[in-house]
Amino acid sequence: MGIAIALYITLSFRIVLVMIYDKFNPDWETDGTQVGIPGLEEGLKVLNRYDPERLLNETMANLQKHWKSRHRTVTIQPSELADLAAILDLYRHASDLQREKGRVVWPEISPSLIKQELAEQRQWKMVIDDQIACIWVVAFDDPLIWGEKNNDPAVYLHRIATAPDFRGQGLVEYVLRATHDMACKMRLNYLRLDTVGNNPGLIEHYTKHGLTYLGAFQLPSTEGLPGHYNDGPVLLFESKVDWGSYVVQSREELEAFTVKELKKMLKVRELPTSGNKSALIDRLLEASKNPYED
Which of 1, 19, 88, 124 has most Cβ atoms within 10 angstroms of its Cβ? Predict the structure, then answer.
């Protein structure tokens, strides 16, 4: 935030400087005098191309967006049938963006498939200040894509779609955290996802968030998969689930872990591991905070 404020002050000062300089030397762009401040006029030529009021308004809008992104309430929960229209809308926005960027485009997702996922509580949403900011689907079985690796206990992420107003805010980090915590509670070993088509930017994006890129593969068969799996190689990503770093949410959830598992969580956090089960849980709760709130 401090950097953004400093930028705003700097831009404001330079815009005022242009207006003052222009007032006392209106022909500075053409007179070739470079009076008083050698080199400044060249810089002012660039700045003077922009309307000062528009530049200030855009700067303020960016500051407000930055402020809101750092002061918000984030909740993650299963989607509901009442969200169906919003889910379909987000998928349409995602396909439009893919088309605009020249990527492999998702086919139209049928409402009946979404209803099935909702009934199975596999459709999830991130709500920020009462708005659905991001949605995704989880699965616990994905043999058509992962082949023999499907034998590993794993959670598979599909169809992550972010609302246009929330793009570029790093929401995938929240999605991965929440899915990692789900995998921890279920004692799964891996978090996995795939995408279709060569996309170096997406590879960098996911690896930056801790996923390992396993490579691009041609599936032996795409029968039974959505149509876009015919449009390019499948890029596979995974991360090993470390349930010792599980984000503590409540006493009830911790009660499901063994003493050995609780001690591992404490050891990861460099906290004492002595005491009975109740004492271990108390220590974990005291040291924890909700990572989904900025």
Answer: 124
- Helix orientation angle between 277-287 and 259-268, rounded to the nearest 10 degrees: 30
Q: How far, in Å, CA of 60 to CA of 55, rounded? A: 9
Strands 131-139 and 74-78: unpaired
- Where do we find the tokens 């779609």? 161
Higher pLDDT, 275 or 268: 275
Q: pLDDT averaged over the chain?
A: 81
Beta-strand ranges (E) seen in 94-205 are: 123-128, 131-139, 154-162, 190-196
Which residues does 107 contact at the CB level (< 8 Å), separation at least 6?
226, 227, 228
pLDDT tens, 192-202?
999 999 889 89
Instruction: Determine how many CB atoms are found less than 10 A away from the CB of residue 13.
Output: 10
Is 190 in contact with 152 (CB distance < 8 Å)?
Answer: yes
Architecture of the CATH domain 74-241: 3-Layer(aba) Sandwich (3.40)
The domain segmentation of the chain, as residue ranges, is 2-70, 74-241
- Please tell me the number of Cα atoms within 13 Å of 234 on its side-chain side: 22
Q: Tokens 């459709």 label which residue?
A: 123
pLDDT in tens, 150-160: 999 999 999 99
Tokens of 277: 């089960």
